[in-house]
Amino acid sequence: MRLEGKVCIITGAASGIGKAASLLFAKEGAVVCACDVSKEALENLVQEASGLAGKVDPYVLDVTNREQVSKVVEEIVNKYGKIDVLVNNAGITRDALLLKMTEEEWDAVINVNLKGVFNMTQAVAPHMIKAGKGSIINTSSVVGIYGNIGQTNYAATKAGVIGMTKTWAKELARKGAQIRVNAVAPGFIKTPMTEKVPEKIIEAVLARTPLARMGTPEEVAYVYLFLASDESSYVTGQVIGVDGGLVI
Ligand code: NAD
């Protein structure tokens, strides 16, 4: 098993890519501390994970709430003694054209997708520094690389995630610490986040995608798995596209 004995925190763990990753990591022997705002969806995830080699331990957590974040991270460290992997996967969209975007829409996306990643990493990093090792995986997007009409807020956060990834890859590796920080940039993936995208837009994106189809959550989860495992022990500061070739 590729993650046997590893303690992994995954945010946004109860749906889409986070859910696929939680199940895959548990199958590979990890203790998955599954964090999400949705209690009900977490309960379903735990049921689905029963019988897998590892386990899914659910935590109702809003990544924008710094008090909750530090409480949950302390609870996990007290329970398991360490954190090997952090996957900053939670993310939302609130789309609108620049001239129509409200301050609320801007703030909501910045808070979850950018500040949430900062909150989680700031709480987890001291434990990885103490252990001298760890792997942090941040979920960016192709939108953070090439922009997208109607996604000013989302593009800002996903580009910001790439900046934080490269900064932390340098900062957290000081004094010989084997702490790796990488980003994954998915393209168009079939999850609840994309289920309301109009058919016309899907067709236009697929026409520009060499593999000419949407990706599955599992196809992203497998890249998280590689970055979480010791197989990627010399990979840090990278942005790995999982986009069917959309950004070439
Ligand atoms: P999803 O909507 O299926 O799942 C997101 C999960 O995050 C949900 O379970 C939700 O409850 C949780 N969440 C939302 N706000 C939260 C908060 N404040 N604290 C904790 N959890 C919270 O979305 P998905 O498609 O699986 O997206 C996962 C990640 O992948 C996101 O960061 C998203 O931006 C990114 N991404 C997705 C796509 C795509 O095409 N689906 C493409 C590029 C990037």
UniProtKB/TrEMBL annotation:
Active site: 154 (proton acceptor)
GO biological process: fatty acid biosynthetic process
Pathway membership, UniProt: Lipid metabolism; fatty acid biosynthesis
Chemical reaction(s) catalysed: a (3R)-hydroxyacyl-[ACP] + NADP(+) = a 3-oxoacyl-[ACP] + NADPH + H(+)
Enzyme Commission (EC) number: 1.1.1.100
A Pfam family that the UniProt record links to this protein: adh_short_C2
Binding-site residues, NADP(+): 89, 154-158, 189
Any one GO MF annotation of this record: quinone binding
Alphabetically ordered keywords of this record: Fatty acid biosynthesis, Fatty acid metabolism, Lipid biosynthesis, Lipid metabolism, NADP, Oxidoreductase
Domain Ketoreductase: 6-192
Signal sequence region: none
Cytoplasm listed as a keyword: no
InterPro entries in alphabetical order: 3oxo_ACP_reduc, KR_dom, NAD(P)-bd_dom_sf, Sc_DH/Rdtase_CS, SDR_fam
Subunit record text: Homotetramer.
Job description of the protein: Catalyzes the NADPH-dependent reduction of beta-ketoacyl-ACP substrates to beta-hydroxyacyl-ACP products, the first reductive step in the elongation cycle of fatty acid biosynthesis.
UniProt similarity note: Belongs to the short-chain dehydrogenases/reductases (SDR) family.
Identification of the protein by name: 3-oxoacyl-[acyl-carrier-protein] reductase
Source organism per UniProt: Pseudothermotoga thermarum DSM 5069
